[in-house]
Write a sequence for this structure.
């Protein structure tokens, strides 16, 4: 949700900023811009559209500029055009700002500034901040740092920002409240970015800003303070991050790469955590907090989007094997609902990015009400990872494709490890524990096997690529998979798709079924198999076209349906890790066939850091 990058050093700033923006493009891609300083003057280029379009605006003219800021936007205030694109300028043309977040009191501030004679060019909330900094700059003897700090005290809302002032070509200022910001330390150069992805090919030494901190970057120095002017000693972390992990590695899209990586990422999530002999698991991050989980009277899982679907599967698992009452809440609802929480409730927030604003707010609400708050995150060092009492990392590696795939299977994996661990500490027998653990260990090969049938799935996808609607049905553990399958299709192909519990079909969706309606059934051999077969009959009786995800060896089902995609058998609670794979591929190939921008679907952003 908007990506920001800043550079100060001795090298050409523009190529570094463009490269950084390309790596942050998953955060927003409706418009982009760059500002640099030369001869005490700001140079700005902005453009609606992708970074590649912005890149074309730069000529050798920018070669000497060694300080700059860049932004890729996901519009909140004002339509995505080049006027509303960042960086924004103040009235004097001396201050330039890039911003991720929302200035909630921008309207009041703007009115006051207009009364003082400021003239605005854009419809954005961000421009207000540029003008506000200018006010304080003029009032404080051109003290740039003070001006930024004072302006931020007036702001309500969230920001991750970068600011330049043409009178100070040797200083770049960054600040954070609510939106992530990382400082990268180089030799004679320093970096600022929303995410380590943007700086990782220049430096591995970083520090994450906390809320209400500002970073003053010079070529040879970085100073971090609070907005109240207190110096802060920061721990500089060394990140273990491979540049290859954020390249496409020969695949047409990041999404396909990430789907194909799943045998490895599922393995990585389990690595060192699965104890086959004992039939249990070890989760270092929460091991010291097991008591609170074991004696919790209630577990509340909260998340958004795909992570919310993983949470639903977690609910089924934990209730079945740990016998603890579990609720799943959309983080956006949870935060405004005054939920009943107490010391006996454990809140578990699930998030790939660890930066989703609603999930972060839900965590804060949980802590406020004295609940124990745990996190399941992918991005190491993310806000959610840092703000929770304890947690478990997915270790799935960076996920760049906007539609989440490998993070989902790793989230379900972590939830199943947690279930195994807690189950074994309560009522699960060691033989059952060993059985489940063995099954978990065999998942990477099973996923590999499903992926080897990608070409067959592609053929089915091509046949249905021009459908207007899709229905996804499943029961039990596979009901959340139906929701996730439908979400994948919606997100990247723009086909309307709904996921439903199969039995609920009779209470509404059945009215939609005709011979133009593809219905995807997740119909694996589990405790609800016979019921699902009856639901398939009901669809066929109404001329619906059925694509079934079925268990290997189930030849009978192929007589009932139009297409079958087989997956290997596994433990019922682990089946979602297998059944989601063909649905990810189906959505991917349909989107490609329709000519959609798979990695950057319209209107979406990977990391939703605004409400
Ligand atoms: C956005 C992304 C989804 C993701 C959701 C939650 O909507 O496009 O792919 O599932 O945010 O994100 P999180 O990072 O918290 O899992």
């Amino acid at each position: 949700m908007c990506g920001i990058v800043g550079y100060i050093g001795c090298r050409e700033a523009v190529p570094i900023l463009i490269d950084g923006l390309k790596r942050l493009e998953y955060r927003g891609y409706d418009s982009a811009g760059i500002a640099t300083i030369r001869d005490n003057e700001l140079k700005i280029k902005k453009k609606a559209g992708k970074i590649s379009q912005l890149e074309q605006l730069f000529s050798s003219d920018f070669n000497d500029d060694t300080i700059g800021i860049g932004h890729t936007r996901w519009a909140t205030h004002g339509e995505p055009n080049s006027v509303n694109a960042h960086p924004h300028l103040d009235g004097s043309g001396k201050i330039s700002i890039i911003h991720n977040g929302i200035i909630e009191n921008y309207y009041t501030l703007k009115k006051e500034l207009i009364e003082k004679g400021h003239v605005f060019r854009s419809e954005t909330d961000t421009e207000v901040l540029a003008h506000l900094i200018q006010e304080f700059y003029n009032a404080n003897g051109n003290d740039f740092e003070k001006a930024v700090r004072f302006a931020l005290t007036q702001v309500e809302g969230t920001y991750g920002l970068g600011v330049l002032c043409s009178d100070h070509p040797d200083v770049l200022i960054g600040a954070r409240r609510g939106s992530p910001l990382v400082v990268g330390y180089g030799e004679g150069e320093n970096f600022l970015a929303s995410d380590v992805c943007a700086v990782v090919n220049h430096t591995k030494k970083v520090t994450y800003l906390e809320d209400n901190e500002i970073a003053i970057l010079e070529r040879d120095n970085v100073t971090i303070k609070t907005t109240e002017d207190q110096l802060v000693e920061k721990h500089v972390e060394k990140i273990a991050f491979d540049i290859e992990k954020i390249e496409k590695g020969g695949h047409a899209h990041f999404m396909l790469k990430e789907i194909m990586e799943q045998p490895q990422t599922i393995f990585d999530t389990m690595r060192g955590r699965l104890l086959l002999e004992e039939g249990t698991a070890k989760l270092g991050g929460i091991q010291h907090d097991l008591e609170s989980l074991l004696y919790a009277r209630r577990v509340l899982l909260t998340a958004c989007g795909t992570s919310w679907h993983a949470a639903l599967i977690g609910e089924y698992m934990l209730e079945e094997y740990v016998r603890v009452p579990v609720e799943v809440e959309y983080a956006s609802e949870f935060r405004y609902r005054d939920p009943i929480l107490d010391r006996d409730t454990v809140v578990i927030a699930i998030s790939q990015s660890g930066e989703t604003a609603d999930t972060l707010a839900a965590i804060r609400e949980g802590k406020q009400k004295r609940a124990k708050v745990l996190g399941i995150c992918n991005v190491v060092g993310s806000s959610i990872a840092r703000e929770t009492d304890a947690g478990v990392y997915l270790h799935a590696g960076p996920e760049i494709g906007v539609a989440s795939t490998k993070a989902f299977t790793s989230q379900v994996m972590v939830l199943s490890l947690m279930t195994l661990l807690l189950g074994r500490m309560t009522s699960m027998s060691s033989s059952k524990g060993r059985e489940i653990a063995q099954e978990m260990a065999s998942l990477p090969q099973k996923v590999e096997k499903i992926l080897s049938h990608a070409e067959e799935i592609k053929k089915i996808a091509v046949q249905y690529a021009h459908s207007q609607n899709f229905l996804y049905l499943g029961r039990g553990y596979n009901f959340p998979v139906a929701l996730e399958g439908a979400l994948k299709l919606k997100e990247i192909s723009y086909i309307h798709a709904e996921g439903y519990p199969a039995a609920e079909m009779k209470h509404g969706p059945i009215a939609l079924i005709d011979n133009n309606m593809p219905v995807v059934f997740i119909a694996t051999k589990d405790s609800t198999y016979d019921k699902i077969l009856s639901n398939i009959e009901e669809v066929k009786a109404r001329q619906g076209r059925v694509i079934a995800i079925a268990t290997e060896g189930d030849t009978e089902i192929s007589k009932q349906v139009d297409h079958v995609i087989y997956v290997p058998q596994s433990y019922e609670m682990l089946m979602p890790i297998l059944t989601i794979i063909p649905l990810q591929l189906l959505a991917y190939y349909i989107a490609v066939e329709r000519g959609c921008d798979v990695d950057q679907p319209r209107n979406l952003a990977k990391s939703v850091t605004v409400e």
The chain is about 35% helix and 20% strand. Residues 304-307, 351-353, 356, 359, 402-404, 604, 606-608 surround 6-O-phosphono-alpha-D-glucopyranose (CB under 6 Å). The first strand starts at residue 3 and ends at 8.
